[in-house]
Amino acid sequence: MFSWFKKKPDTETSPGGSVVNRHEGDVFSKSQVGFTPESTAGFGKAREKIYERYFGKSLTLFHELISLVPHIDVYTYEPGHDGRNFFTLVTSGMSDLEMTVPPDRAAPPNRVELIFYCLEPKPEYLETLRSLAHFPHDNNTWLRPGHTMPNGNPPEPFSGSAVLDTVLFMPTIVTSDGRLPSEIELGGRPVQLLWLVPLSTS
Fold first, then answer.
1. Is residue 157 in a domain?
2. Any residues with CB less than 8 A from the CB of 16 and at least 6 apart, and which?
3. Which of 5, 112, 126, 155 could lock onto 165 through a cystine, CB 3.0 to 4.6 A?
4. What is the pTM of this model?
């Protein structure tokens, strides 16, 4: 289970000088139960059509049973489409709402979906994607390329790993997937893909 920590009033920085924000509580402790506004009702179908063109037919859909805001599902796509020799896992619903981006940031992505590439679509990968997709909305914050998120303080290994305890968010390394923002625009904003890269802090 994730254990993010509450933001401290004093500014904390990493050894490299980056600002560290901490949050507290289980990942869903601040989730709002309910339904995303009707104005976003067509977003899911729009994403699904474009996902199919990029990734092929979905193998499975990890569906969120409790209606949280926003509603997050995770699609799994098999290898084979467009020369892929790996599974592609991608969220759908995170971009229904804009993230809370600081006003002093110049043109950052404020609608994003998460993507992960793997050799086997394990259940813990799906749950991690879904959990992280809720995080910025539940905590009135944002995610962008270059952000990192440890699993607790001190970081603990994610389920299924002995050493991986932190996630780095990056632009996708798959060239074709990098063109997806030019095709998905919700509420006048392009939808960016953030690639999850597991890291070890040890």
1. yes
2. none
3. 155
4. 0.80
* pLDDT score of 106: 63
How many structural domains compose the chain?
1
**DSSP 3-state assignment of 40?**
helix
Confirm whether 1 is domain-assigned.
no
In sequence order, which residues have a C-beta less than 8 Å from that of residue 17 and are 6 or more positions away? none
Residue 35 neighbours by CB under 8 Å, 6+ apart: 67, 69, 71
Beta carbons of 116 and 124 less than 8 angstroms apart = no
* Identity at 119, one-letter amino acid code: L
Interval 82-128: pLDDT, tens: 899 999 999 999 999 999 988 876 666 789 999 999 999 999 999 99
Cβ neighbours of 168 (radius 10 Å): 15
Q: Which two tokens stand for residue 127?
A: 């749950």
Return the DSSP state at 41. Answer: T
CB-count exposure of residue 112 (10 Å: 0-12, 13-18, 19+): buried
Question: What does the pLDDT look like over 12-27, one tens digit per residue?
Answer: 665 555 555 554 545 4
Q: Which domain range does residue 89 map to?
A: 27-199
Q: Is residue 31 part of a domain?
A: yes
Beta carbons of 86 and 75 less than 8 angstroms apart: no
CA distance 195 to 99: 17
Please, is 154 exposed, middle or buried when counting C-beta atoms within 10 Å of its C-beta (0-12, 13-18, 19+)? exposed
